[in-house]
């Protein structure tokens, strides 16, 4: 059958293969899973495991996002040689869902293992479903670019919906106005299951695309890869626990790939060598862009919580003013609001109950107008939703917290004397877990859904993506379409300009260090414009510049460049609004100094590298030898 007849007789929707829309909805739910948990991840880690240490939480977040992209390097090869794309996607999705459900267990060891399983699953799912889209179209099919545009809309619809839905469900399942983020992870896992079901039920629309390689049709290949993935999870767990090592591992892998590419180019002809040099330059630009851009789920999430106000008259950030209660008596609490207020506010205190230390009880009480210094006694009468006084319960909880602190200090001292004793290691781990469970926290002021800002970039992509696609076609017809290096330069400059806008807004912050919500929205708009200059052309650029015999290998290099960028982004995030050496993070106006210290280097990096790309775009373009 000729190619023309094959296209004309296939089942289509809107002129595209019906299988495209199976992949569209499967990817929508997978991105719902990933971006839903990502929106909650750094904040949950800081609150649950690091006692508010944002630097440590940012490091773990960076290790997670770096390893997610790094594992994509291996997923395509596994599908090619062992599973086929369909089974790799199904197995990856199942592992991702299992990982999300494991996050429900509120212990750090199980949480890290859940992230590790999720990373392995994403490595199988993410690269292969994108490959499946390309396989729906015969070589030279003019519909291919349009198909990828539709698929890209599915990605961003999932990314738009998930922070809203997962945060909403976490809020519904929480108590006392405080969300239980674990239920947000459950919602993300359910989304992944819906993606698996959607994909499985749409097999008939995929025809013969994505089937296993010959000789690998049996269950044995699935079992081997599944067992291998689970065996890899402990190594991923270890890298997450030692977050800085994840950066060294991903950097070493990238250096190895770049070294191999140079060696391959040197032993090839001049054109191939120069195209590889251009490719490496663009990979470095890609790292600079995403290291700047990927603050969204990390430092910008904390910024949305702590430094934004919704209305001009607001006295509190979107996430309220929060911290640890210093002391309590039956008459008063000792804590700091850190804000000057013109209206009475409410304090919500979260503390573990006597009956079950894993269950937290919330109680609220109004506090008066005024300006409070750090750790002052605030007379309040805590009453729960049933009208029961809770001050006495809180005093008992404070006593248990002090006991947990003493036990943790004693266990740490004993372990210091003999770090190899397994019993002492277990005792120290148990003491740390008990201290975490015994924590007593407070939030002053109204708490709004700051996590919803994670959806802003995605909705801008959905709205502006088709306009950019049409604009590039319009410019190309008039021979005005910028070259790929020039587009990289534009994207990088806009990444820096977004942070420049936000840092400029600090000058207009109120006495509490709060800036209007629309300043962060403006940053996301500018960043989206930059993303649309780089992201859609990136994968296409890789496939065009890479020698045909190592295209898959080079694609792995692209994912590893993003992995390194994510880890670099985490290093910037550790500077933003965090304390040093385990100190509590700065709050209010003082926190802006930390954010400024993190974002100004990003401004210089992204605008500097961007201008360099704009200046050198023609020489780089010459190295590409006609690749557009």
Description:
With 628 residues, this protein is an alpha+beta fold. The protein folds into 3 domains: 16-241, MFS general substrate transporter like domains (Growth Hormone, Chain: A), CATH 1.20.1250; 267-318 and 449-628, MFS general substrate transporter like domains (Growth Hormone, Chain: A, Up-down Bundle), CATH 1.20.1250.20; 321-444, no CATH class. 66% of the residues lie in helices and 7% in strands. It has 19 helices and 11 strands. It has helices at 3-9, 18-48, 54-83, 85-102, 108-135, 144-173, 181-201, 219-241, 243-266, 270-293, 299-306, 391-417, 422-437, 456-477, 484-505, 517-545, 551-573, 589-615, 617-623, and strands spanning 12-13, 16-17, 308-309, 321-324, 327-328, 332-335, 345-352, 360-367, 376-379, 441-444, 515-516. β7 (345-352) and β8 (360-367) form a beta hairpin. α3 packs antiparallel against α8 and α9 (243-266) runs antiparallel to α10 (270-293). The radius of gyration is 26 Å and the shape is globular. Mean pLDDT is 85; it is low at 1-7.
Briefly say what this structure is.
This protein is α+β, with helices and mostly antiparallel strands and 628 residues long. Helices cover 66% and strands 7% of the residues.
What is this structure's SSE topology?
Layout: H1 3-9, E1 12-13, E2 16-17, H2 18-48, H3 54-83, H4 85-102, H5 108-135, H6 144-173, H7 181-201, H8 219-241, H9 243-266, H10 270-293, H11 299-306, E3 308-309, E4 321-324, E5 327-328, E6 332-335, E7 345-352, E8 360-367, E9 376-379, H12 391-417, H13 422-437, E10 441-444, H14 456-477, H15 484-505, E11 515-516, H16 517-545, H17 551-573, H18 589-615, H19 617-623
Parallel strand pairs: 3-11
Antiparallel strand pairs: 1-2, 4-10, 5-6, 6-9, 7-8, 7-10
């Amino acid at each position: 059958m000729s190619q023309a007849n094959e296209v004309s007789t296939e089942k289509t929707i809107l002129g595209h293969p019906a299988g495209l829309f199976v992949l569209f909805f499967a990817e929508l739910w997978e991105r719902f899973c990933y971006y839903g948990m990502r929106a909650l991840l750094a904040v949950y880690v800081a609150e649950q495991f690091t006692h508010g240490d944002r630097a440590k939480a940012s490091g773990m977040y960076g290790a997670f996002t770096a390893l997610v992209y790094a594992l994509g390097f291996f997923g395509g090869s596994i599908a090619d040689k062992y599973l086929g794309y369909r089974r790799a996607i199904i197995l990856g999705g199942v592992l991702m869902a299992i990982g999300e459900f494991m996050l429900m267990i509120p212990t750090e060891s199980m949480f890290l293992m859940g992230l590790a399983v999720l990373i392995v699953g994403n490595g199988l799912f993410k690269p292969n479903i994108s490959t499946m889209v390309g396989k729906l179209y015969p070589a030279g099919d003019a519909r291919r670019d349009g198909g990828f545009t539709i698929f890209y809309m599915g990605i961003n619809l999932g990314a738009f919906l998930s922070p809203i839905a997962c945060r909403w469900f976490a809020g519904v399942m929480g108590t006392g106005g405080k969300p239980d983020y674990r239920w947000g992870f459950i919602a993300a896992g359910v989304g992944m299951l819906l993606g698996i079901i959607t994909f499985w039920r749409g097999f008939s629309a995929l025809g013969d695309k994505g089937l296993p390689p010959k000789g690998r049709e049996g269950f044995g290949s699935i079992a081997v890869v599944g067992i291998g993935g689970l065996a890899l999870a402990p190594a991923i767990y270890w890298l997450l626990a030692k977050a800085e090592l994840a950066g060294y591992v991903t950097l070493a892998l990238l250096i190895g790939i770049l070294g191999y590419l140079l060696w391959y180019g040197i032993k090839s002809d001049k054109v191939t060598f120069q195209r590889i040099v251009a490719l490496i330059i663009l990979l470095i630009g890609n790292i600079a862009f995403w290291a700047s851009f990927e603050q969204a789920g990390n430092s910008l999430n904390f910024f949305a919580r702590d430094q934004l106000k919704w209305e001009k008259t607001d006295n509190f950030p979107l996430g309220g003013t929060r911290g640890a209660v210093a002391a309590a008596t039956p008459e008063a609490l000792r804590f700091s609001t850190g804000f000057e207020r013109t209206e009475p506010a409410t304090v919500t205190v979260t503390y573990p109950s006597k009956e079950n230390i894993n269950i937290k009880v919330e109680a609220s009480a109004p506090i008066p107008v005024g300006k409070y210094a750090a750790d002052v006694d605030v007379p309040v009468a805590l009453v729960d939703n049933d009208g029961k006084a809770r001050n006495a319960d809180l005093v008992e909880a404070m006593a248990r917290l002090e006991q947990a602190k003493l036990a943790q200090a004693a266990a740490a001292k004993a372990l210091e004397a003999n770090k190899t004793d397994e019993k002492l290691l277990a005792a120290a781990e148990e003491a740390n877990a008990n201290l975490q469970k015994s924590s007593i926290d407070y939030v002053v002021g109204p708490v709004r859904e700051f996590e919803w800002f994670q959806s802003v970039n995605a909705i801008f992509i959905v709205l502006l993506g088709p306009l950019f696609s049409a604009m590039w076609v319009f410019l190309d017809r008039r021979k005005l379409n910028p070259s790929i290096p020039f587009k990289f330069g534009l994207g990088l400059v806009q990444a820096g300009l977004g942070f420049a806008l936000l840092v400029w807004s600090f000058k207009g912050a109120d006495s509490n260090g709060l800036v209007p919500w629309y300043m962060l929205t403006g940053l996301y708009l500018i960043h989206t414009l930059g993303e649309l200059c780089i992201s859609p052309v990136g994968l296409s650029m890789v496939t065009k510049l890479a020698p045909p015999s190592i295209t898959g290998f080079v694609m792995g290099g692209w994912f590893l460049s993003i992995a390194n960028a994510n880890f670099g982004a985490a290093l910037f995030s550790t500077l933003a609004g965090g304390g040093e050496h385990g100190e509590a993070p700065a709050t209010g106006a003082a926190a802006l100094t930390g954010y400024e210290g993190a974002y100004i280097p990003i401004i210089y990096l992204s605008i500097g590298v961007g201008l360099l790309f704009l200046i050198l775009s023609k020489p780089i373009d010459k190295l590409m030898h006609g690749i557009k």
